[in-house]
Amino acid sequence: MDLRTFKLLHPVKYYKDYLDNNIRPDGREPEDLRPLAISLNVIKNADGSAVVKIGNTTVICGIKAELSAPKALEPSMGFLVPNIELSPVSSPTLRPGPPCDEAQVCSRTLADAISNSRCINLKDLCISPGNLVWTLYCDLVCLDHDGCVFDAALIALISALHTVKLPSVRYNHDTEEMETDTSKSHPLVINCVPVTTSFVQIPTRMIVDPTAEEEKLASTIFTVTVSDGKITFFNQSGGDSMDCVMLKKCMESAVKRERSVKTMIQSMLDQAHRQY
Predict the structure, then answer these.
(1) Looking at the predicted structure, is the pLDDT value of residue 3 above 70?
(2) Neighbours of 191 (CB within 10 A)
(3) Do 150 and 223 meet the contact criterion of CB atoms below 8 Å apart?
(4) Any alpha helices (H) in the chain, and if so which ranges?
(5) How far is CA 218 from CA 69, 154, 252, in A?
(6) Pick from 79, 170, 65, 187: nearest CA to 128
(7) What is the DSSP string of 71-134?
(8) N-to-C CA span, the chain
(9) Contact predicate 199/207, CB 8 Å
(10) Residues 92-113: what's their mean pLDDT?
(11) C-alpha to C-alpha distance for 246 and 30, rounded to whole angstroms
(12) 103 pLDDT higher than 70
């Protein structure tokens, strides 16, 4: 039996044989992350944008800022609305049509991760309490799906938020008219940089930053979102138990990645400022 046939017939055994030698089929060790690349201001007509690559996984984010009325119960709070699309060209398993379940879950989880980390104070988006606030529509598109789409999406979103500049707006309470001055703009205040790291269990080994193929074989998938060295969001699917030693290693890996991503984004922002 050739190797390709064995992999098709016994995919878990195929991976287990590799993991028994502390290596994965792509050459990484179980604890190794794939290369990360971030590019800022990639969409000319967006108010903020970024593209992120984790290995082959590619997610682009564009942010559009619009003026709107606030909620009656939250008159001083603006809106941040993330929405991710899994393009049919990103994976052979995806088809054109309405958003798939994975995309809807990812959009909801993105909103929860951003909210829990409090990286953006929605009150900073208020122009006139009860009358006018900013709404940030964060549209993300997965161009290449090779695992850890949520990790790439969150990094793309937080990177794009760093590039947003909102124009000055004056609101007249008497006439309810507003005046926008694009010559005077200010950046968003980003309080922290939430970063997510995903892990899978195949079958008893814990693997960080899984590919799409590894995610399909996993009995358990969980993600850890870290901000300023603290866990702000945790999500798990699958029922396999994890021992304390394994869980501690995952947390340490997630904290290390958060520091690395935070440093990378700040370095790119500093470089952009020097160019201007």
Answers:
(1) no
(2) 14
(3) yes
(4) 3-9, 11-19, 101-117, 149-161, 212-217, 244-275
(5) 44, 22, 21
(6) 170
(7) BTTBTT--EEEEEEEE-GGG-TT--SSSPPHHHHHHHHHHHHHHHHHT-S-GGGGEEETTTEEE
(8) 60
(9) yes
(10) 89
(11) 12
(12) yes
- Give pLDDT tens digits for 182-209: 778 889 999 999 999 999 988 778 899 9
Both tokens of 36, joined, read: 């990360």
Q: How many CA atoms lie within 13 A of 42 on its CB side?
A: 17
Beta bridge partners of 85: 141
Alpha carbons 204 and 215: distance in angstroms, whole number: 14
The answer for residues whose C-beta is within 8 angstroms of residue 268's C-beta and 6 or more apart is: 38, 40
CA 55 to chain centre: 15
In this structure, what token pair is assigned to residue 160?
């794009």
The C-alpha torsion from 91 through 155 and 207 to 22, rounded to 10°, is 100
For residue 1, what pLDDT is reported? 61
pLDDT tens, 27-37? 999 999 999 99
Residues sharing a CB contact under 8 Å with residue 270, sequence separation 6 or more, in sequence order: none
Task: Please report, to the nearest 10 degrees, the dihedral formed by the alpha carbons of residues 230, 217, 35, 223 taken in order.
Answer: -10
Percent of the chain's residues with pLDDT above 70: 95
pTM higher than 0.85 = yes
Closest-CA residue to 84 (of 153, 152, 147): 153
Other CB atoms within 10 A of residue 81 CB: 15
Coil/strand/helix, residue 13: helix
Task: Please say if the pLDDT value at position 22 is more than 80.
Answer: yes
Residue written as tokens 């007509």?
45
CA distances from 118 to 124, 193, 226, 228 (A): 12, 9, 12, 11
